[in-house]
Amino acid sequence: MKIVSVVGARPQFVKLAPIHKAAKAAGVDHVIVHTGQHYDPMLSDVFFEDLGIGAPDVHLGVGSGSHGVQTGAMLSALDAVFDEHRPDWVLVYGDTNSTVAAALSAVKMHIPVAHLEAGLRSFNRRMPEEHNRVMTDHAADLLLAPTQVAVDHLAHEGLADRTVLVGDVMTDVLLEVRAEVSSQPSPLLEELGLTPGGFYLATIHRAENTDDPQRLAEVASALAGLDKPVVLLAHPRVVAKAAAHGVALDEGSLMSHGPLAYADLIAAALASAGIVTDSGGLQKEAFLLGIPCTTVRQETEWVETVDLGWNVLANTAQEIAAGVTRARPADTDETPYGDGHAAERVVEVLLSRRA
Ligand code: UD1
Predict the structure, then answer these.
(1) Identical fold at 2-168+338-352 and 176-324?
(2) pTM summary value
(3) Which of 4, 123, 293, 328 is most buried (CB neighbours < 10 A)?
(4) What residue's CA is closest to ligand 1, atom 3?
């Protein structure tokens, strides 16, 4: 059986790693296509190298651009790739422009499409990711859902007969890496002279927090005013927007730092007093690491983290400050994100339904 995986952005490389491992173990011919949406080495190459994926088989080199330009360039390049490989499945990941482009190109060529991380919803129609996920779910032939909540959303949209609950593949990676890093010192702490529990770790990159100058200034000043040092692992988007809008990312408690490799990120998260983020993946990683999370958004797709008390939504400076200083949540035995074997289940389902 041949599967073509299409990835392009940082979180997709993390999701790809356990799928690639499980596909190889099952003897699947697994072709990896990188759209080139993310191209900086610290957003791309380092994940392929460190997570044992190797190099992509095909690199489209699409790069940055407006949604239309970027998605259109991917669509036209992917047609030729799918035509050459004619796989049994095209596997698409998450909610980026690379996801929707690959799903659209493949279904129009009558190639079966499976969507990994199907059924997540923010119900915020101003998020580009929300459109990407809804369109991909409705186009795809097989919906691989990470949680029961995602299964319920898909059923509500009339998609129950295409849905399978597999668990969350990012959890597969996290559990492995946590075991590796928990006994080692965090390189970030050594570099910045921070003490365990003496700082907050932050990431901010969503369009809704970065693109409007006032909003970015509000978020930066909220972080600068917190009661402990805040290390902002700055995505190139936030660096570019801060420079364009004249917003300082290094003042008060706030200090910016480049993005980290995956294991270094997990080690730093584990050593932090709390996480402040608008990333989807990091909210879940915080939960799985037992680190309180404050999410700088008005809604989350990972509602289990909030329901179980490990995550709070915070929009204003006051809410962010209250979020990071709140009492530590009660420990929980709940495992809403699966058992760390989701990727094996994905490959089993794809094999059992091969066209
Ligand atoms: C994309 C996804 C988002 C995901 C995020 C993970 C979409 C619509 N958004 O957002 O869902 O959470 O990836 O990180 O697909 N840039 C660089 N170097 C790079 C990549 C980007 O400098 O390697 C800069 C460019 O200025 C670019 C901007 O970041 O224009 C935005 O990049 P883009 O890929 O459009 O979206 P992300 O914000 O990364």
Answers:
(1) yes
(2) 0.97
(3) 293
(4) 96
